Amino acid sequence: MHRVNHADNIVELKNVSFNYGNDRVLKDINLNIHRGDYLGIVGTNGSGKTTLLKIILGLLPPSSGSVKLFGQDAKNFKDRSKIGYVPQKVTNFDANFPATVEEVVLMGRYARRGLFHSIKEGDRKRVRFALEQVEMASYENRLIGELSGGQQQRVFIARALVTEPEIVFLDEPTTGVDKGARDEFYQLLKKLNEDLKLTVVLITHDMEGVAYGAMHVACVDHTLFFHSSLEEFLKETKLNEKLERDARIIAHHHQ
Ligand code: ADP
After folding, report:
1. Is 240 strand, coil or helix?
2. Which pTM value belongs to this model?
3. Domains defined along the chain, listed by start
4. Is the pLDDT of residue 239 over 70?
């Protein structure tokens, strides 16, 4: 596991609260995300995860408190190419959707350079590199709709990587992805964090999912009531016991 530089924060939230009308959705959140971290943000539905993400990205202003991205006030932050975003539910393409894998990933470059900018060889190289990172290079010319949910999700990671971001946020990325593909997907995130030194923020209700590679875990239920190492999280939730039990059962079945 590579080291995290704790002096180097990409995201800094201080005493952040947020209300929708009279409903207090987030209360007094203090959260730093360090360069090189792989942070899992977990919480049940309605706990405020998506709201927190929108605040971190500067899409919603906090009702009180301060938000900094790369040391700047989030609402003034302009260099969006430093931030990658993989949304949930991208698996709705039908088999006839007329875009290839390469075209879908290229869209990540257009966002940076403007839609009518001509495609340069450099863009194609970046697309190829991003697809290699997610082990999908051999699918470059396939139609996106012909791929499985797990493969489509990898392509969407490649699209987020193509601007060479320093941090990537994933919002419930494994919705609609089957169990086997999900485990591989989490392995991939860990690899990107380690090999590319990419800072990864995984937002999910899947507590076991974060166990696959997160370095730290933050738990949200309107407040941030836990933020520590993965090891502490597994102990606190007794998830370590469950995972060991599952591993024993699997080992038993394979005997
Ligand atoms: P999560 O992502 O953890 O499911 P959300 O951040 O989406 O949680 O929602 C937190 C709470 O805020 C929920 O009670 C939800 O109903 C409420 N909420 C979300 N978006 C809005 C909105 N646009 N207007 C009013 N209430 C909202």
Report:
1. helix
2. 0.88
3. 9-254 (3.40.50.300)
4. yes
